[in-house]
Amino acid sequence: MADDPHWWAKGTLLENCNCRLICRCHIDYRQPADHERCLGFLAAQIESGRYGDTVLDGFSAVLLTDSPQVMLEPGWTVGLCVDERADAAQRLALEAIFGGQAGSGWAVLAALGTRRLETRYLPIRLERQGRNWTLRVGGLLESVLEASKGKDKTGAIRLENIFNQIHGSVQDLAWGSSRYGEPYLHFSTERTHALSSSFSWRGP
Questions:
Q1: What is the mean pLDDT of the chain?
Q2: What is d(CA 47, CA 33) in angstroms, rounded to the nearest whole number?
Q3: Which of 132, 143, 165, 201 could form a disulfide with 105 if both were Cys (CB 3.0 to 4.6 A apart)?
Q4: Model pTM greater than 0.90?
């Protein structure tokens, strides 16, 4: 891959953290989270994308996060999990995007990371069942996102026209229940803040 290749990616982005619905940090990083540490993940499923000449179609990545109560402050611990099916070039591309080196909104998040754990290459299984999602990352993370129901009892409750560095401008709210554990980063949620959106990223 050439230095600083042009790249783009489109797909679905999910998140779950230990805040109550709705997480105030999601709307504005200057707002305090519900707990002393905000714990959770961001999971991306790339439907189509290119990093230079490298094809990214069908690959997933999950960023695990442990951030201060005011997320705009530095002091994050982050761990990246990349789809083990990716070859060497695809792994480099995915790490560059989600690690912030390729620019876009991920560079903003990367600037807050004080401690970065070693990237893991694991089987990532992200499936949609109706409007609900299930996520499994190796034997480390299991998550279920149950879509919220709006007034009509069928459609999702949505956030619209919100400025967010990495999510799309329309986000479907959900309830998230997740389990993740390792010596340096672990969390457990039960029907807490979660959402999904369609993303479109581009750089540099």
A1: 92
A2: 31
A3: 165
A4: yes
